Amino acid sequence: VGLVLGAVMFLAPLLVDVPGLEDMGERMLAIFLLAIVLWVTEAIPLVATAVLVIALEILLVSNQALLPVPGDGDATKYSAFLGALANPVIILFLGGFLIADGAEKYRLDKNLAAVLIRPFTGSARTTVLGLMVITAMLSMFMSNTATTATMFAVIIPILGALPAGRARAGLALSIPVAANVGGIGTPVGTPPNAIALGALEEAGYDVSFLDWMIMAVPLMVMILVGAWLLICVLLLPGGLKVELDMRAQWHTDRKALTFYVIAAATILAWMTESLHGVSANVVGFLAVAALLVTQVMGAEDLGRLSWPVLWLVAGGIALGDGVGATGLDAWILGLFGWDAMPAFVVIIVMGMLGLAMSNVISHSAASNLLIPLAMGLATGIDGLEPVTIAVVLALACSLGMSLPISTPPNAIAYATGEVTTADMAKVGVVVGVVGAALLVLLMPPLWSALGLI
Question: Are the C-beta atoms of residues 331 and 372 closer than 8 Å to each other?
Answer without folding.
Answer: no
